[in-house]
């Protein structure tokens, strides 16, 4: 698979009001515990996780009139706090009900357990330890992760990648462009029942909650201004903020550029075969977002790269000219090398150097250009053809 990356500046601005942007006060004012204190208190890590995730809810209880988070967020926070205080079983000091559920889910992800295997593992643990407060099913364990804001959305897509069945197209059963069906029928061999399932599914990881969490922590909220407050501005190119594209955008959108906390993202994607065999043409495209507000030595760290989408099937790309041949199937060398001129490519074989040269570029010049009548400097002929029509 040829690596094809496309980088562009994406900008997120004005979608919500971030009170204090995380700099004004901290939800954790106590010093870090010692190893002994950390071992003796099973709630420390969970409390830190919950306070970082729902920081605005916690601060709302302390600062009257600064309530920013929706009411549903507050409900989820207090529910998880109660589960964080609840012992896994009477006398358990190492795990709470909440922390054990998260550790189990991490175990499933790291070791690639299927949903059925994970549910069977839960049944086995509940059978061996009936007093332990274990989730009843994989669905309930997954719901805890969703309440933390780590969920994703499934969006159905056309099998030919024409449209997404989303927003105005959410209720369609057929593609409005090519007419392909949104569904495919799958028959259950056990009961001979036919079930409709989507042909193709895009998985989208909501961006706004992830950006919210960045500004919920005082340390990361300060780091989000590095590109403006701490970057060395001596004219040398060290960071995307030193580039002409960044400066050009700032000149076009001065209101956005005036606040260093506004988020600037770089987007990158690459296809890979998830089945580890070249005999299958299917590929999957993860779309990654890099946080360009941060310093160069932190913005490319794995913990600061956000997974935005997982796209099934092939995807359009921006690539170099040789890669175009491998992706599109049109050769970019030989007698018909130009994808614009197609079969009318002006090519000439040089027998001594055994190479193909292309001298038809004068057709793109204005009709009265003097190079069109210049025989000596080119192939000994005048050029009077018009420019080819792009495919």
What are the key terms here?
two-stranded antiparallel ribbon; 14% strand; disordered N terminus; 10 strands; 391 residues; 6-stranded antiparallel beta sheet; alpha+beta; 31% helix; 4 domains
Please give a structural write-up.
This protein is an alpha+beta fold and 391 residues long. The protein folds into four domains: 1-16 and 249-318, no CATH class; 19-147, no CATH class; 153-203, no CATH class; 321-373, no CATH class. It has 14 helices and ten strands. It has helices spanning 35-40, 44-53, 55-62, 71-85, 97-110, 115-128, 138-147, 207-216, 218-223, 226-229, 244-252, 254-257, 296-299, 321-328, and strands at 9-12, 153-157, 183-187, 194-198, 200-204, 263-269, 284-291, 305-312, 347-350, 355-358. The strands form three sheets. A six-stranded antiparallel β-sheet has the order 1-6-7-8-5-2. A two-stranded antiparallel sheet has the order 3-4. It has a two-stranded antiparallel sheet with strand order 9-10. Helix 5 (97-110) crosses helix 7. The longest helix is centred in the N-terminal third of the chain and has 15 residues, at 71-85. Residues 1-44 and 60-70 have low confidence and may be disordered.
């Amino acid at each position: 698979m040829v690596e094809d990356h496309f980088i562009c500046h994406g900008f997120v601005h004005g979608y919500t009001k971030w009170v204090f942007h995380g700099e004004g006060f901290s939800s954790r004012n106590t010093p870090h515990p010692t190893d002994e204190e950390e071992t003796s208190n099973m709630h420390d890590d969970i409390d830190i996780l919950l306070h970082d995730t729902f920081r605005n809810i916690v601060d709302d209880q302390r600062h009257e009139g600064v309530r920013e988070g929706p009411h549903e967020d507050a409900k989820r926070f207090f529910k998880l706090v109660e589960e964080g205080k609840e012992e896994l079983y009477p006398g358990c000091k190492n795990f709470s009900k909440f922390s054990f559920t998260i550790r189990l889910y991490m175990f499933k992800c790291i070791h690639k357990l299927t949903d059925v295997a994970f549910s069977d593992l839960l049944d086995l643990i509940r059978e061996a330890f009936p007093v332990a407060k274990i989730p009843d099913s994989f669905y309930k364990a997954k719901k805890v992760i969703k309440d933390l804001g780590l969920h994703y959305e499934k969006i159905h897509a056309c099998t030919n990648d024409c449209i997404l069945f989303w927003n105005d197209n959410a209720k369609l059963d057929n593609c409005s462009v090519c007419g392909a069906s949104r569904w495919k029928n799958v028959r259950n061999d056990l009961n001979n029942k036919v079930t409709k399932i989507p042909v193709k599914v895009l998985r989208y990881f909501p961006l706004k909650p992830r950006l919210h969490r960045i500004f919920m922590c005082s340390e990361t909220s300060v780091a989000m201004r590095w590109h403006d407050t701490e970057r060395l501005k001596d004219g040398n190119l060290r960071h995307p903020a030193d580039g002409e594209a960044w400066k050009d955008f700032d000149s076009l959108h001065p209101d956005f550029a005036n606040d260093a906390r506004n988020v600037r993202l770089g987007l990158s994607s690459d296809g890979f075969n998830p089945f580890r065999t070249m005999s299958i043409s299917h590929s999957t495209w993860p779309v990654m977002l890099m946080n360009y507000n941060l310093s160069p030595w932190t913005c490319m760290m794995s913990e600061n790269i956000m997974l935005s989408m997982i796209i099934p099937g092939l995807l359009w790309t921006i690539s170099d000219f040789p890669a175009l041949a491998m992706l599109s199937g049109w050769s970019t060398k030989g007698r018909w090398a130009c994808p614009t001129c197609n079969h009318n490519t002006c090519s000439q074989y040089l027998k001594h150097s055994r190479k193909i040269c292309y001298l038809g570029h004068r057709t793109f010049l204005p009709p009265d250009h003097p190079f069109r009548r210049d025989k000596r400097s080119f192939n000994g002929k005048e050029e009077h053809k018009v420019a080819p029509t792009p495919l």
